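User: Fold this; tokens only.

Assistant: Input:
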Amino acid sequence: MAVATRPLSDQLDLWSRRFKLSLLTLALLAFTAIIIIPFVWMVLMSVRTTGEILNNPYGLPAQVRWQNYLRLLFDPGIQFYRYFINSVFVTGCAILITALLSTLAGYGFGRTRYDFKFRGWLFALLLFALVLPPQVMYIPQFTMMATYGLINTPFALILIYGALGLPVSTYLMATYFSQLPSEMEDAARIDGASDFRMFWQVMLPLARPALATVILVNALTYWNELLLSITMVTRPDFRTLPAAMMFFVGESASDYAMAATSLVTATIPILILYLLLSDKFIEGMTAGALKG
């Protein structure tokens, strides 16, 4: 009897595991559909006319209108390319500032060998900045940029974006650096490496997953930021993509087809960046769970 019961229990366990796996798969498919369907709908809207969208918002295009993208990119009346270049410049420079300062600060906070004065208090102040609402800083930021004559210049956005991304980026880098083995530093120190060379050639390459996470998360934030971009910059020549996309939707008239086309076009660079950094991004996000 015992011999006959054992295969049945194993079979029940197998069925139970398959059932749980099927439920998990269905849940993940449903979650993926919820995420993807709005994007697919936006792509379909981008190849339709505004009249078609108003008549049937959720319908398929009667005729695929790829000329919407040509009009968006090359129409001199829209000048979308100018806003695109502005966004690339602002986002790229802000990411450079954030990545450079956060890696240096994260290395100093993350490695216990750098026991400088007020280290704990400074890190606590950094954690406080993580929970500080960014809205409370808008007026001081505007006043500061106006004092230095940076209003209506891309440098106002570059400096503010770079500063806003520093707290969470420094925290991520410090957490990752704190998990790296100290034997790597000891070996570099024995070979006569200076602190900066040890950071640049030994420790920073090991922290590439965390650096990729910092770049990707901040790129998404800077690229999509709207409130500061329309507050600090009012000149059309220097405005970024989020401000430009507002032109297609107004109180008296709206061009929903071109608005959807601009949204799809603005999404493509972030998708490309994610595809390039996805492996390192996932590794950086899961490093704490795997090593901690």
